[in-house]
Automatic annotation (TrEMBL):
It comes from Nitratidesulfovibrio oxamicus. It comes from the Bacteria. The keyword Mitochondrion does not apply. This is Large ribosomal subunit protein uL29. GO terms for cellular component: ribosome.
Amino acid sequence: MNAAELRKLSAEQLKDKLAESRKELFDLRFRHATAQLEKTSNLPATKREIARILTILKEKG
């Protein structure tokens, strides 16, 4: 999801999306630690998405 799409969401929807992304990052880290993650590029992509959501939440005040 890009920044323009995220900006269209309400603060509550962003918080839900943030919780979902953090859970996904936890799962990715767990699978990476147990050598079950094939596409490791998902880790930094998920981190960037979390940072993007946090930035937009701060912009909204």
